[in-house]
Predict the structure of Sulfite reductase [NADPH] subunit beta.
Amino acid sequence: MSTISFAGDAVARVAYLSSDVILSVQPALNVDSDFSRQLHLLATRKTPGIISREPDIQVVRHNADPLLSAFQPLRSGKLVSVTTSSSILLQSIPHLYKLAQHPIVVHVSLGPFRQPDYSEITSIRQSGFIFLQSETLQEAQDIALSAHALAIQSGKGVIHFFDPANSLDDDPIKIENRELAKGLLNTEAARREHTRIIGDYSLYVDDDGQSIVTESNLPLVENQKSRTLDGEVSFNVQPPKVSRGEESSVGSSARESSADSRPTVSSATSLDSTNPRPMTSEDLFDSISHIWSQLSTATGRTYEAFEYSGPSNAEYALFVFGSTRLFVDEISVANASDEFAECGVITARLYRPWLGSKILDSVPPTVKRIAVLEHIRRKTTKWGPVLLDILTGLKTGPSGSDSPKIVGYQLGYIEAATARQALRGIFQNLKSVSPIQNLEVGNHERPQNLQNQTNLVQPKVENAYMKMLDQVFGPRLYVANRLEAAHAGVSPSIATTPEYGFGSILARIDHRKRFIEEVQEAAKSQDFTTSVSQKWLSKWALSVDDPSKVNEFAEEVISRLATDGSRLSSQLLSSKALFFQESQWLIGSDAWAYDLGNSGVHHVIASGANVNMLIIDSQPWSQRAAADGARRKKDIGLYAMNFGNAYVASVAVYSSYTQVLEAMIEADQFKGPSVVVAYLPYNKEDDSPLTVLQETKRAVDIGYWPLYRWNPYNEDEGKQNFSLDSERIKQELEEFLRRDNHLTQLMNRHPTFSANLSESYGTEVRALQKRKAKDAYSKMLESLYGAPVTILFASDNGNAESLAKRFGNRGRVRGLKTMVMSMDDFPVEDLAVEENVVLITSTAGQGEIPQNGRAFWDAIKDNTELDLSQIHFSVFALGDSHYWPRKEDRIYYNKPGKDLDAKVAFLGGKRLTDIGLGDDQDPDSYYTGYNEWEPTLWQALGVANIEGLPEEPPPITNEDIKTQSNFLRGTIAEGLADTTTGAIAAADQQLTKFHGTYMQDDRDLRDERKAQGLEPAYIFMIRCRLNGGVATPAQWLQMDSISSSFGNGTMKMTTRQTFQFHGVVKTKLKPAMRGINKALMTTIAACGDVNRNVMCSPLPTKSAFHRDVHEVSARISDHLLPSTTAYHEIWLKDEDDKQIKVAGNAVVDHEPLYGSTYLPRKFKIAIAVPPHNDTDVYAHDIGLIAIKNKNERLEGFNVLVGGGMGVTHNNKKTYPRTGSMMGYVAADKVHIACEKIMLVQRDHGDRKNRKHARLKYTIDDMGLDVFKGKVEDLLDFTFENQHPFHFKSNIDTFGWQKDELGLNHFTFFIENGRVEDSATYPMKTGLREIAKVHKGDFRLTPNQHLCLSGVHDDDLDTIKGMMKQYRLDNVQFSGLRLSSSACVAFPTCGLAMAESERYLPELITKLEGCLEEHGLSHDSIVMRMTGCPNGCARPWLAEIAFVGKAYKAYNMYLGGGYHGQRLNKLYRSSIGEEEILDILKPMIKRYALERNEAEHFGDWTIRSGIIHQTTEGKAFHENVAEEESDEG
Ligand code: SF4
């Protein structure tokens, strides 16, 4: 940008260049101010500042006490500026007085737009700040710069104010001259400001500080000693040096000195050259005049304290304190006959210090009368403040009685159309014999369109807490400062303050107290018609202290009184709302209710009133370190606990919904003040819930935001006062607890508190961590011998990592001191002192380095200073030469490795060997290249010919683990007993899968915990075995309870129709497993290399048929269950139950079907009942298509074999496959057929390569006929020809359906199968309540929804009522959403590369507008998403699919068959949301226009040529729309 058009932009640029920290005050975090867009633009472009290379822009909301945030950076010697509208000034007065003593610049854009209120400036004129005003665009830039120069030179605060509308029509100006700015800013003084250490500060800065001046600091002024206030002043070219001293005790406060018209210290005229003295107004005047003279020399533009424009012989002049534009425009076109022709205009450039006596210096002596026009809306004195200033100034000036006559005016609202008329009025009065003083000109009332400039809005994200309050207390809830409540005659900005709310609550409490007395009296009275009323009133009066009872009785009392008909009853009924006990709340929120800070909390707690406070803290903890440490909400919980009479809870809705509920209920029940401090971190008001969730989780996990509840009276009931609801706690809180005697015991029982506390945060810790790890390694290595070799890897899928580790081991046996770590874990600054470095990297994305090498590469790629001349190095790269078929893309092949090789050599590194290139296309994959490279490296390191090397143990494979596991025991039991870690051993992690549980870690917390030096947050996923997805209500209740007691409070219904629990920590694993077994369910073989849960269509409309099919699924499931007793032994028996234990060396287990090595890979069976292919029957190892007889009962099955979804990105040897038809088998024999198919796979599946071990590859390798023959060899029958069948779709049918027996079934839409409660949707609670009364069963659908089955007509109303109550009856969603499905992915799945379950709903929302626009809202389009190519949500069969590639990047696939019969194909690789929407929106439009009757989206994409059809699994990678790019 070379020109600027807006004053706000010009000022923002200057502020950015001239400050270390800029506080950008904005109406909301996502609403820009006049300055913020420009500030953020500069920051985004990383434009270097003059004072600071990277100025820090801190966004603060205008109602969040913004100027408080200035103290912290000022305290650390930073130069601070503030960009703000004038609306914050009045509320900031307490801060302004203190800030005035610091070199801060506040740029104020006056509002409201086009009708600014200058009283916001005059009201703070005594604050001690220097005030400068600008009017035009050019002035805005120059005065902004002057303001910063002056602040630096004087050490005092400067407010620069301007009306942004005044310069709207100005021509664009050039951007500031950087050299000029540098000269004016006197960076030397600025640097002094940086290093100046300010003494101890309390919350507020010391306001005794004064600016002082010494002779040597002053500008060299000619004739200085004889200079008087009104004398001519000229300046030396040297800038004045004015510094601030802490010690000065001389003189009056700076406030006085700056506001007065004469210097408060008269010694200005007789300087003692050695003694410092307080700075005077004159000194400031000298400084600013000097700055302006420099500016003038450089630019030719002159500025003065008062400026006059107009004829040199004018008799009349206007002194305008307000926007001049309208008047100047009008005067410039005046006719000679106009009253205001030939008049001059005076403005104050320097408004404070007020040097009134200088006005006349700038005005021609011919001026006889001056009209003083003030744009002051809020008039608090009879005479305008500027008028008084001028009068005082003239009185003290030299002109005495010759002074012009001054006539004051109040300016109302004036528009261009009325400016001429206003001027005429002004001059008619001014020229009259006896002008009227204080005449009001213009409209008194603000025009309608300018009202309500700053609407307070409650951010949507904060609804979470508000809705919970509504939900918990319903009609009882009274939020005293609720935003939308009507408060007659009170503006929202006042009505929403907690102070106002507190007053209103006190009034209500009082009112009710009187009412209770009234009722108590009435209960004794005989004035009722019947005694029933009396009886109920007594009951009510006796229970006034119990909210639940009193509200229960209230209804009854009211109805009795209503029928009583007496005068007394009518009188009581006139206040009937008071029969109910309200739950009264005050809200504190940065965004809309003014912050309920310590003082507010103090007020409420000190009053002892029964008031509940909900204080929402929205500051993300990651911003915390940079932010003001003195923010008031810092320790509000602790502060309140110290009072000893308040209930206190610290909660976070995105961490624990139940804990928030508990806290709200407890706060309500507590008789006294309650403070619930609620965390809701967001950067912008429209942050997505996912961002808020992730930020919350980190803050809670790290102990920054502990979850706890504190009830000071609990101990009276023998309970603990304090309950910690999260794992960790912060130091201040721990200290408080330690101090508290009553809690000593608690502390003793939780010794882990202290261990976790003294951790600090941030990047230094991360760096320290790296160093520690490296040092520890180095130490260990010192004791060894041989040359040191540091092996650094960057790896996405583990190949480069395992190669690096292997190389490390092999080096060690050769006597080398090897150290292996990921590149990002290595401190780059240490690279130069290494001796030998080996870099091993794979290739990610479009030839990029994998994630765990990015920071390393970033640190060296543009580095020219790193000297690596001392190191020897070699690089080995892994990639695939065929992934980039286009010639021009070949450069991506092994690019990261090649880049590293070139860069290290460029920095001086000496090559040990040439780079080694591993290529997946080679016969032995990347090992071919590796096997050539490795020996050359041993040669170079001098360890090639070592004799007697121990034989290298072969790598342990899954097959080894299985064989050696003693029928799946391994050391699981020992691992569970080990409390030193939350993990279990690596081999056991493979084995526990067979028991139905996976070890995972919370990936939202991974990085932060690593930085803290903690092990990952290990958690386990448990998967149940639930044959056909059918559960009884009792089982549902048990699952619900397990998820709450042992998991993360939610249940996932999976695509294999079973329950999954997430977030189970190791210590809760066993109780959870027992709980599941107690519900007569199991988890055995839910995962692992065995036959897993057998799926079956829920089939709500055909109950008898469903029973038949479900029985078969149960039979198959039981028949193929493993026989090991390890499961019972590990999970279900007590430690001392020795009888059943089969451990030790007497193994008696036997697996008749599986043998000790089980299957080569997982094995899946599903049954579909045409026309519903909801189980996606083509996607499983065995797919059974149920065939019915004439009586609509089961007859047999068509058998499909070799379906499978799992793929590895970029590995074309892996592909999804749809099952192949084997033929038909009768129902009674199908379990045998399944067994034999499984046995052939057991014996012929690939046990060497797990990526090639599924049945689909066995069949493709063997050929279907051969495979079928082998199966039939084991059977005593053969497959018949398939029976005809027809599928219509693979999605669920939602809503109510009736079956042939007259029973009712309802299919709920449970988005992506996640059963949980949220503030807006208490789904889990609702389903639990329904389970308590339901007499049928629950059927989990294969699309992750839920069918409530078998509801009798008699129970229908009850169930429908409950569904309505919990909003479970809503199935009115778009066809796309109803047909969508996503796997779990982040944060629990270890394989996830991208979000899935947490993201797909958001993506669909972004597409729904487009669908509606093109009339497709109700059309079903099957869209699926998974976080990785493992394909749990069967993405390859969807019409549109997204498969995670990297965080926020997906591969997009199109062309799947609508009823799951056809695979899709790659359309785009590694695209983000923007591209997805850019692709899909026009495609949806085209589909709407071009589709044939009943043509589905997947079919259309093929017909229209957008994508080729995938005919079979092996052809999946052929004819793709775009080659996949990724790691090799
Ligand atoms: S598809 Fe991948 S990311 Fe999603 S749950 Fe399955 S393994 Fe995890």
About this structure: DSSP finds 50 helices and 51 strands in the chain. The radius of gyration is 39 Å.
